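Our preliminary data section would be incomplete without showing what the modeling component actually yields. Below, a chain of 41 amino acids is followed by its predicted structure, encoded as tokens that our downstream tools consume directly.
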Amino acid sequence: MCIPTKKKFLKGIKEYEKKEKREAIYKVATFLTKHFKNSIK
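Predicted structure:
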């Protein structure tokens, strides 16, 4: 696995943010809700 330089890493983040409309925390919350919905009483 190749570790990117800081410049390439930051560029990748910017490209990701351009394409990704939802925040990462939204995705995590959605996953947790779907995964644990049966265990909530």
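The chain has a mean pLDDT of 85. Helices lie at 6-19, 24-36. Preliminary results of this kind motivate Aim 1 of the renewal.
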